Fold this sequence. Notes:
The complex is a heterodimer of chains A (about 90) and B (about 240). With about 90 residues, chain A is mainly α. Chain A has helices at about 25-40, 55-65, 70-75.
Amino acid sequence: MAINKYTRIPIAEGIDSAMDLPHTLTQAILYRLKINSLNELPKDKKPSRNLWDKPYELDEYLDEIWDTKSEKKGKTYVDIDLEEVE
Amino acid sequence: MASLIDLLLYKKEIEIINPITNKPIKKVWVRVLGDFELNKAYKASRVASAIKRAALRDTESDEYKDEVLGVVDLNYEEQIDLVKTSRTSNLITEAQSVVVRPNLPELPEITSNPDAPTLENLEELDKQESSDEEKYKKNIQEYIDVKLLEIDAELRSLPQDKLIEVAKYEVSNVLPFATFIEELNTYKAFYGTFQDKACKLPEFEDINEYRNLPKAIKDKIIEAISSLELSGEEVKN
């Protein structure tokens, strides 16, 4: 059984399932997982830290950067100056 | 800032003392609730605060006559302070949403060789992070201060009868919040108090058993649970 070195309290005692986890611990784990998954995004698509704990703004941001349906982002665009083409 | 130790210390033993004789009655264990029970506690507390809010806004109710009408007897400055105090807690949440939190500093900003940072680079990174955090807290406080000044000016421009109406409305907002917190603490204590160290044998059979305890005992249990619990902001930091 795992024992917390500082508090001498067995950390697993009484915790038989995820439901028994203190909500503070669950929240910290979920928050860390969320940040890890955001950090996996390419650098130019990573949301700023300001959005990490604003779920609705974060959703909007992610919808926007992955929006391939709109006309603007769905088309391939190549920047060529036609006057330079012979 | 919360540490891992704070997170892992989620239960403790407390001694219940008879408030009249001052002698120990028994020892119980309290723990931080899990998500499932916390959500049940929140839901029950919202029901209680909704009932209180409806009663305070019903001009025929005893609650309105007893708790809201008292605003009329306050003097001008007290009425203004009441509104400002009531709006402050919302302003804190609003500030956290509006004020931009800077991104964490990264090693490439500090050194040209981020894959092999020196100890000094890492110290610089820590310094930058804590300075950004301080700046963020300062900006939040400034946002709240400016908003409070705006509210103050807005309230002073109102005629007296309008100010009383605003103050009455704020009372009908603040008191349900107090009811919500009280009910939430009641449920946390009910679900979070146990006879055993493993926290498997509940101390109370039903919530009224807890409600009927002397206030000093209830306060002791709630204080113990609060000391174990971290706020959302602390958990994220």
